[in-house]
Amino acid sequence: MKSTLEWTGGMAFDVELDGHTFAIDADPQFGGTDKGPKPKGLMLSSLAGCTAMDVASILHKMRLDPKRLSVSAEAELTDAHPKVFAAPITVVFTVEGDVPPDKLWRAVRLSRDQYCGVSAMLRKHAPIVFQVFLNGAEVPEPTE
Question: d(Cα 121, Cα 143) in Å, to the nearest integer?
Fold first, then answer.
């Protein structure tokens, strides 16, 4: 895996990753023009994407087909430099459809504890809290 960045002026860069291109930039207060996402935000997107793909795959293997699967990741930044994610990072799954809560949590746990490499890397810095909402109601993690 390799990511290459080409400076396009100011604080903006064009990024090439695995044949895909996109721009990144900084906030105007830091010399950017907001032409693209910021690197720390991309880390949250990577976390959400990694665990979302795991859970979608695991649910498919369980022969479950949710009508909707949405994942968000959120974190605050510390005030001191280098600004890093303050604990905890929160990952929220929003699922709609005929999916048994215990199987949904099993898929989330497998991603969280075994499969998602982004989660494994980030949790070395800050704890990650996972929340699950199924058909509009929060589902607490079952105790085993």
Answer: 25
